[in-house]
């Protein structure tokens, strides 16, 4: 279905990308990081964005999360088109509508786990919804660690704190950038299961950049990028089907 250039996306779509390009440099030195990407990110789904190094997956996520801007095209979060927002509106959008989980946790070392979780609300001078806060804490399973500082937590516990921080403000969409990249396989599986349950049990929309077929198997949908374009996608993935899809789009050596 085709819509007008400035028509708001339907409510069941949390984020929408339309013909998004991102270039760096000029002339012969120009690099096309994104080359006309069009994508709907469905509300309540857990989506993985995959692709080889340099495929554009991190650039796509950063443009969707209002951390970067495209050269042309449109990105919508809910009914807001990012290109039409002023700096103050973008700041509010990042604070209220977008959650972010980083590979490196990005916790404040001098704050307790609880203080880290509610930090975005504290900065905005808002009190968190205590009922939802309790739900998030139960979901991530760190209630007994709320008084601990990051250096008193394992890597897996730190990442669960970071996930809780992203969820507690009830954002429209959560972006996770290689969230298990610094974790062992057991801790990584716990965080991935947490993200999956956040989508399935609480209707949270989650988009994860990953290179790991096992991580991708936790999601509802895998989108594969190559050379800045979407080349394939897969629903209800498992490890083997993800490996098969990526292999199909990997150039043969020699």
TrEMBL record:
Annotated organism of origin: Nocardioides currus
PANTHER family for this protein: ABC TRANSPORTER RELATED, IMPORT ATP-BINDING PROTEIN
GO molecular function: ATP binding; ATP hydrolysis activity; transmembrane transporter activity
Annotated coiled-coil segments of the chain: none
Keyword ATP-binding: yes
InterPro entries: AAA+_ATPase (IPR003593), ABC_transporter-like_ATP-bd (IPR003439), ABC_transporter-like_CS (IPR017871), ABC_transpr_LolD-like (IPR015854), MacB-like_ATP-bd (IPR017911), P-loop_NTPase (IPR027417)
Keywords in alphabetical order: ATP-binding, Nucleotide-binding, Transport
SMART domains noted in UniProt: AAA
Organism lineage: Bacteria, Bacillati, Actinomycetota, Actinomycetes, Propionibacteriales
Location of the ABC transporter domain: 15-252
Protein name per Swiss-Prot or TrEMBL: Peptide ABC transporter ATP-binding protein
